[in-house]
Please model this.
Amino acid sequence: MTNDWDLLLGDQFDQEYWVALQAFVHGERVQHQVFPDDEDVYNSLDLTPYADVRVVILGQDPYHGPGQAHGLSFSVRHGVAVPPSLRNIYKELEDDLGVERPGHGNLEAWARNGVLLLNSVLTVRAHDAGSHRKQGWETFTDRIIQLVSEKPELVVFMLWGNFARSKAALIADRHHIIESPHPSPLSASRGFFGTKPFSSANDALIAAGRDPVDWTLVPGSD
Model:
């Protein structure tokens, strides 16, 4: 982390859980392939400074396939096929705001525009979903959510799916929470489609005197 997050989270780095977590991840990288690459683990924080956060989109684990994860929830690198959940997010974005689907799955433009794309767990063993849960990442990312909740200005939290919705207890009442089923193919048709989260987020930001998010993405190909 090379911005204001480093100072805000500095009290975490000498805690027992953090030392154990880093030892665990190092051991996993020695024995297995781990995603994302070490230099990409904190991309969500590096690309979205604390001072700039206007929206939080919370995921659970990084993608566990080769070349997919790069430190942003729901996002994949250029040149990687758009995953099913992100395809559904794009469908809802198009239906909500008329934003054309970009043809790639890289969400860095959102991150640079004040959207914190945070996974609850920041690493995963290749081809083994959930393999780095309950090792300490959740303690770290819960602290991130709490810090954002401490911001005096309104922030919009998009909580998609039961896991993300369980984090609502960490968020102060003054913020705006958008809850729905997860955009995965298994649940999107059960209440994610039609929720208009992107226009709802911007409406809440504007009502609070904050700039709306530009949800457009530069077209490209996957």
